[in-house]
Specification:
Elements (H helix, E strand, L loop, with lengths): L1 H12 L4 E10 L11 E2 L1 E14 L4 E6 L4 E6 L10 H14 L7 E7 L9 H16 L6 H16 L6 H8 L4 E6 L5 E5 L5 E7 L7 H20 L13 H6 L6 H26 L2 H17 L6 H11 L4 E6 L7 E7 L3 H16 L4 E5 L6 E2 L3
Parallel strand pairs: 4-6
Antiparallel strand pairs: 1-3, 1-13, 2-7, 3-6, 4-5, 7-8, 9-11, 9-12, 10-11
Bound molecules: alpha-D-galactopyranose.
């Protein structure tokens, strides 16, 4: 794939680009906690977006989406939102670099990859952080990795208009092979845990449901969490986010809450606890207990946070019936995309059969199945 992208760049721009690999991500547990300043446990994976990028004379950015075979040009000093959609993820980065006073000149970029779009594996963060990394290189901007993460997140918040948290861009830049990363989304302290047991695999089952509700409902969930914080802050001065909330505090103020807002907050408080507990399980090498926390996370996302959908629930239920599946839950923002399953290698075939059958019986089509391996974050490729 990366060679095809390099060849396309050479034929379009008659120049030698740098090549960059920017990975998708999985999240083992800790969903919808990042924007509540809580904890997450993601990892970078083998599926990725590849970039070929080089400076170009003039003050124009020339973008080419390899998979769509579409091009887009824009003025570096004045990126304007495009109806095509995809250029916004890239122009948003240039916009942020401009606001940060970085000296970005004209450039050419061809990109493409194999992260399924809308699958909850964060192709958007891979595009944003991958371009931020590439431009930092070709223009020697001297931005540190954390700065790139924040800039890529802001590009999505301000230019694309989704108020996403920091998880996806962070793991994109900071991922390490064979490891998951526990991130404290308030302090940004992070810790790597080896995530390897020879007989275990991470399997993703893709509903192939387009996540139409994801962006609008995502912003609604954020607002609901903020509404909960507002109520609780009256009783606990200094309380800034759901990260600061204990189950006892929440329970004590229940009568002041609209029931929906209460459910949302209750999920987030529990999910933060689950991430902490799952990390203790990992330290003990207890993957069975870890899997049970994943199941608990799904129950909360389905019943209390209400960001699942029937297709995701069917895949999770079918996986739960297969011996050797230690845990299963929906992954990412929700309303479609993938489930993530922790599976004993000997159970993979049974899992595939089980989920395909249940899914086909109900929806008349098959889900897609990917076996993921954990890889490094965004980096230069030498070929
Ligand atoms: C999306 C966002 C992340 C995070 C997840 C849900 O992937 O980009 O910041 O909020 O949803 O956990």
């Amino acid at each position: 794939m990366v060679r095809q992208i390099q060849a396309k760049f050479r034929s379009l721009f008659k120049d030698e680009p740098i090549l960059v690999r920017s990975p998708g991500r999985v999240n083992l547990i800790g969903e919808h906690t990042d924007y509540n300043e809580g904890f997450v446990l993601p990892a970078a994976v083998d599926k990725a977006i590849y970039f070929a990028v080089a400076p170009k004379k003039g003050a124009v950015g020339s973008l080419h989406a390899f998979d769509l075979d579409q091009s887009h040009e824009f003025e570096i000093a004045r990126p304007v939102r495009s109806d095509k959609g995809w250029p916004n993820y890239l122009m948003g980065v240039v916009d942020q670099l401009g606001k940060a006073g970085a000296a970005v000149g004209g450039f050419a970029c061809v990109f493409g990859g194999d992260i399924p779009i809308g699958s909850g594996m964060s192709s958007s963060a891979a595009i944003e952080a991958g371009l931020a990394f590439s431009l930092n290189r070709i223009f020697s901007l001297g931005l540190d990795p954390l700065k790139l993460v924040k800039l890529a997140q802001k590009a999505e918040n301000e230019f694309v208009g989704v108020r996403c948290g920091i998880m996806d861009q962070f793991i994109n830049i900071f991922g390490r092979p064979r490891s998951v990363l526990k991130l404290d989304c308030r302090s940004l302290d992070h810790q790597y845990f080896p995530f390897e047991r020879a007989d275990l695999r991470i399997v993703l089952c893709d509903t192939l449901v387009k996540r139409e509700l994801a962006a609008s409902e995502y912003n609604v969930r954020r607002a609901q969490c903020e509404a909960g914080v507002k109520i609780l802050a009256k009783h606990a001065p200094g309380l800034l986010s759901l990260r600061d909330v204990s189950l006892e505090l929440l329970e004590a103020q229940r009568s002041e809450f609209d029931p929906i807002i209460y459910k949302r907050c209750d999920y987030v408080v529990h999910e933060n606890l689950r991430v902490e507990e799952a990390c203790s399980d990992l330290k003990k090498g207890d993957f069975t207990a870890f899997g049970r926390r994943m199941n608990g996370s799904h129950d909360g996302l389905r019943d209390d946070y209400q960001v699942s959908c029937r297709e995701l629930d069917v895949l999770v239920e079918a996986a739960g019936d297969v011996p050797g599946v230690l845990g299963a839950r929906m992954m990412g923002a929700g309303f479609g995309g993938c489930t993530i399953n922790l599976v004993e290698e000997t159970a993979i075939e049974a899992l595939k059969e089980g989920v395909v059958k249940s899914y086909k019986d109900i929806f008349g089509r098959e889900p897609k199945i990917y076996i993921s391996s954990l890889r490094s974050g965004t980096d230069i490729i030498k070929i």
